[in-house]
Amino acid sequence: MIIGGLNKCSLIDYPGKIGAVVFTYGCNLTCPYCHNAGLVTDGGPEDRYDTDEVLDFLKSRVGRLDAVVVSGGEPCLHNDLAEFLVQVKAMGYLVKLDTNGSRPTMLKSLLEQKLVDYVAMDIKGDPAAYVPHLSKRSFEAEIRESVSAILTSGIPHEFRTTCTSPFIDEAVLETITRMIEGAELYALQEFNPKHTLNPGFFQEHEGISPDLLERFKVVAEGKVRRCVLRTT
Model's pTM, two decimal places? Predict the structure, then answer.
């Protein structure tokens, strides 16, 4: 597993817990608003952490941290992810997985092995419209399969959408919320134009106003158990 980043202490990434965040390298999406460009671009991360080094750090924090969050990039691209999580779980940590839902087979395997205690899945827009700006090929079937797996897993979860044009409008929100109906939590995230993967893209497209975000929240609240706005 290629680890390109490590946040040794976070109070916000695992709800209600103190955790470390492990960032894996590599992603199969090309979201222009991505803030982890160094984990997505070709050539590998500028800094690379040895897996054993990260595990040793986590061992040294047992009793001081509650959880480990595995984010990216896209963690489910790494075939040895389960092996890593087995070792993390053996230390007694809760595990949260951040995923884009593009590899449902891996996701379902992790859930079945009880290696994940909380899942956060990003839904970038209408799953049928990821190409060409968000991905090079369609992941519609995979995204829907991952949503279904999460909703039926019985474990705590959330879905998240970064709200920016041209990807999100009220019709798209209707599509997404129908797909995730009954979800425990849906977070609508305000777009932050700083340090994005493709800054030039947003010379033509811009974020969504706070008033419109509130309207989106109203749309979502009728379909999910709880909807929150996360602003920058």
Answer: 0.93
